[in-house]
Specification:
Helices cover 60% and strands 0% of the residues. The N and C termini lie far apart (23 Å). By secondary structure, the chain is mostly helical. It has one domain.
Length: 48
Amino acid sequence: MSMADTLDTIYLSDTYAKLSKPATSLYYQGARYVLSYIISEIETGKIA
């Protein structure tokens, strides 16, 4: 996967959308925690 594809995957993900919304408080979580959401979303096609 190219860098451009990787960035598109992240920025277009539901996880990133939730990370960008203060109401979800996801931005307070650690990087590994957020990464687990992104990996799960990529593998299953939906956010956990």
